[in-house]
């Protein structure tokens, strides 16, 4: 490895691209993201990362300061499978539509998971993201649920 060349760890790539570490490791294992193995870890060159993303990578910046995230669980009781599917699809589409299809926008991070419990007719939304983006999505969810009443 050229000492002058900049290399990133899988964890750094995950942070830069706002992806889960396992996703980046999968890209490396699949050969989509070239990497060199150093001991038990992978190192990805700046050039390979730029080729993978198709865009220049900005140099590592100074720490951004404090960052706040929210983890929210919303339980909606008294819904059948059809209604649960409609709600889940609407919320997921809203999250993806507002945040560039990847679940994120320039300033926001957002992840939405849903779980339906058929025995209890209950739907749970697990929302993870920054405070503003999470608050926006929770308002949309509240409006959707309010429209069901």
CATH domain topology of the largest domain: Alpha-Beta Plaits
CATH class descriptor name of the largest domain: Alpha Beta
Tally of helical runs: 5
Distance between the termini: 63 Å
Average of pLDDT: 83
> What is the structural class?
alpha+beta
Strand content: 15-25%
Output the helix-strand order.
EHHEEHEHEEH
Oligomerization state: single chain
Overall form: elongated
Largest sheet, order of strands side by side? 1-3-2
Spans of at least 5 consecutive residues whose pLDDT stays below 50 are 100-107
Compute the CA-based radius of gyration: 19 Å
Largest sheet: 3 strands, antiparallel
Q: What proportion of the residues is helical, as a percent range?
A: 40-55%
Total E-strand runs: 6
CATH architectural designation of the largest domain: 2-Layer Sandwich
The domain tally reads 2
Describe the overall structure.
The chain has a 3-stranded antiparallel beta sheet. A 3-stranded antiparallel beta sheet has the order 4-6-5, covered by helices on one side. By secondary structure, the protein is an alpha+beta fold. It has helices spanning 10-17, 21-30, 46-53, 81-98, 131-146, and strands at 7-9, 36-38, 41-45, 69-77, 110-117, 122-130. Helix 1 (10-17) crosses helix 2 and helix 4 runs antiparallel to helix 5 (131-146). It folds into 2 domains: 7-53, Multidrug-efflux Transporter Regulator, Chain: A, Domain 2; 69-146, Alpha-Beta Plaits (2-Layer Sandwich).
């Amino acid at each position: 490895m050229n000492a002058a060349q900049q290399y990133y760890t899988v964890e750094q790539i995950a942070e830069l691209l706002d992806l889960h570490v396992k996703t980046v490791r999968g890209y490396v294992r699949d050969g989509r993201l070239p990497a060199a193995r150093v001991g038990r870890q992978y190192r990805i060159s700046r050039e390979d990362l730029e080729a993978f993303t198709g865009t220049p990578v900005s140099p590592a910046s100074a720490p951004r300061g404090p960052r706040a995230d929210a983890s929210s669980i919303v339980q909606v009781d008294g819904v059948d499978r059809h209604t649960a599917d409609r709600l889940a699809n609407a919320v997921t589409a809203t999250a993806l539509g507002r945040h560039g299809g990847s679940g994120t926008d320039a300033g926001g991070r957002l992840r939405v998971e849903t779980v339906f419990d058929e025995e209890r007719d209950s739907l749970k939304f697990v929302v993870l993201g920054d405070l503003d983006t999470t608050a926006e999505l929770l308002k949309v969810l509240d409006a959707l649920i309010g429209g069901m009443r």
